[in-house]
Amino acid sequence: QVQLVESGGGLVQAGGSLSLSCAASGSTVSRLAVGWFRQAPGKEREFVSAVSWNGGSTYYTNSVKGRFTISRDNAKNTVYLRMNSLKPEDTAVYYCAADTWGQGTNRLTAYEYWGQGTQVTVSS
What we know:
Layout: E1 2-7, E2 10-13, E3 18-26, E4 33-39, E5 46-51, E6 58-60, E7 68-73, E8 78-83, E9 92-99, E10 113-114, E11 118-123
Parallel strand pairs: 2-11
Antiparallel strand pairs: 1-3, 3-8, 4-5, 4-9, 5-6, 7-8, 9-10, 9-11
Protein backbone atom coordinates (compact mmCIF):
# COMPACT_ATOMS: atom_id res chain seq x y z
CA GLN A 1 0.00 0.00 0.00
CA VAL A 2 1.05 3.55 -0.71
CA GLN A 3 -0.22 6.63 1.06
CA LEU A 4 0.03 10.07 -0.52
CA VAL A 5 -0.45 13.39 1.22
CA GLU A 6 -0.50 16.70 -0.65
CA SER A 7 0.32 20.05 0.89
CA GLY A 8 1.14 23.58 -0.15
CA GLY A 9 -2.12 24.73 -1.67
CA GLY A 10 -3.62 28.10 -0.92
CA LEU A 11 -4.84 31.41 -2.26
CA VAL A 12 -2.57 33.44 -4.51
CA GLN A 13 -3.00 36.37 -6.87
CA ALA A 14 -2.63 35.95 -10.61
CA GLY A 15 1.03 35.99 -11.55
CA GLY A 16 2.07 34.56 -8.23
CA SER A 17 3.66 31.23 -7.33
CA LEU A 18 2.95 28.20 -5.17
CA SER A 19 4.82 25.00 -4.48
CA LEU A 20 2.91 21.80 -3.88
CA SER A 21 4.37 18.77 -2.16
CA CYS A 22 3.32 15.15 -2.33
CA ALA A 23 4.70 13.04 0.49
CA ALA A 24 4.59 9.30 -0.08
CA SER A 25 4.82 6.46 2.39
CA GLY A 26 4.55 2.71 2.11
CA SER A 27 6.39 0.12 0.12
CA THR A 28 8.90 0.88 -2.67
CA VAL A 29 7.85 4.51 -3.06
CA SER A 30 11.12 5.34 -4.79
CA ARG A 31 10.09 3.09 -7.68
CA LEU A 32 6.81 4.86 -8.31
CA ALA A 33 6.04 7.35 -11.03
CA VAL A 34 4.06 10.27 -9.65
CA GLY A 35 1.61 12.47 -11.44
CA TRP A 36 -0.24 15.65 -10.59
CA PHE A 37 -3.82 16.07 -11.69
CA ARG A 38 -6.34 18.82 -11.04
CA GLN A 39 -10.07 19.15 -10.97
CA ALA A 40 -11.95 22.42 -11.22
CA PRO A 41 -15.59 22.72 -10.14
CA GLY A 42 -17.88 21.15 -12.70
CA LYS A 43 -15.02 19.78 -14.76
CA GLU A 44 -13.35 16.43 -15.15
CA ARG A 45 -10.06 15.65 -13.49
CA GLU A 46 -7.22 16.45 -15.86
CA PHE A 47 -3.55 15.67 -16.15
CA VAL A 48 -1.07 18.37 -15.18
CA SER A 49 2.38 16.81 -14.91
CA ALA A 50 4.20 13.56 -14.17
CA VAL A 51 7.68 12.37 -13.31
CA SER A 52 9.22 8.93 -13.74
CA TRP A 53 10.50 6.97 -10.76
CA ASN A 54 14.06 8.26 -11.09
CA GLY A 55 13.21 11.78 -12.22
CA GLY A 56 14.69 11.12 -15.62
CA SER A 57 11.49 11.83 -17.53
CA THR A 58 8.99 14.58 -16.95
CA TYR A 59 5.73 15.37 -18.67
CA TYR A 60 3.48 18.42 -18.76
CA THR A 61 0.16 19.32 -20.23
CA ASN A 62 0.50 22.13 -22.77
CA SER A 63 -1.26 24.74 -20.68
CA VAL A 64 1.38 24.60 -17.91
CA LYS A 65 4.56 24.12 -19.93
CA GLY A 66 7.09 26.79 -19.08
CA ARG A 67 5.21 27.73 -15.90
CA PHE A 68 5.16 24.54 -13.81
CA THR A 69 8.10 22.35 -12.84
CA ILE A 70 7.85 18.88 -11.38
CA SER A 71 10.69 17.36 -9.39
CA ARG A 72 11.27 14.63 -6.85
CA ASP A 73 13.53 13.84 -3.95
CA ASN A 74 13.50 10.10 -3.42
CA ALA A 75 15.53 10.42 -0.24
CA LYS A 76 12.58 12.34 1.22
CA ASN A 77 9.90 10.33 -0.62
CA THR A 78 8.49 13.61 -1.86
CA VAL A 79 7.46 14.98 -5.23
CA TYR A 80 7.12 18.71 -5.81
CA LEU A 81 5.19 20.84 -8.24
CA ARG A 82 6.46 24.37 -8.53
CA MET A 83 3.82 26.60 -10.09
CA ASN A 84 4.82 30.02 -11.40
CA SER A 85 2.89 32.70 -13.29
CA LEU A 86 -0.36 31.32 -11.98
CA LYS A 87 -3.58 32.16 -13.77
CA PRO A 88 -7.18 32.12 -12.55
CA GLU A 89 -7.79 29.11 -14.81
CA ASP A 90 -5.28 27.15 -12.71
CA THR A 91 -7.78 27.22 -9.85
CA ALA A 92 -8.63 23.64 -8.90
CA VAL A 93 -8.11 20.90 -6.39
CA TYR A 94 -4.71 19.39 -7.13
CA TYR A 95 -4.15 15.68 -6.57
CA CYS A 96 -1.00 13.65 -6.66
CA ALA A 97 -1.14 10.04 -7.75
CA ALA A 98 1.28 7.13 -7.91
CA ASP A 99 1.80 4.60 -10.67
CA THR A 100 3.72 1.40 -9.95
CA TRP A 101 4.75 1.05 -13.61
CA GLY A 102 7.24 3.78 -12.82
CA GLN A 103 7.63 5.53 -16.16
CA GLY A 104 5.04 8.30 -15.84
CA THR A 105 2.00 8.84 -18.00
CA ASN A 106 -0.80 11.31 -18.57
CA ARG A 107 -3.42 8.56 -18.35
CA LEU A 108 -5.51 9.02 -15.24
CA THR A 109 -6.53 5.36 -15.17
CA ALA A 110 -2.90 4.22 -14.93
CA TYR A 111 -2.53 5.61 -11.42
CA GLU A 112 -3.34 3.24 -8.60
CA TYR A 113 -2.92 5.45 -5.55
CA TRP A 114 -4.31 8.92 -4.96
CA GLY A 115 -3.99 11.61 -2.34
CA GLN A 116 -6.86 13.60 -0.91
CA GLY A 117 -6.05 16.77 -2.82
CA THR A 118 -5.11 20.33 -1.97
CA GLN A 119 -6.99 23.42 -3.05
CA VAL A 120 -5.28 26.02 -5.22
CA THR A 121 -7.16 29.25 -5.79
CA VAL A 122 -5.81 31.98 -8.08
CA SER A 123 -7.54 35.32 -7.85
CA SER A 124 -7.62 37.79 -10.72
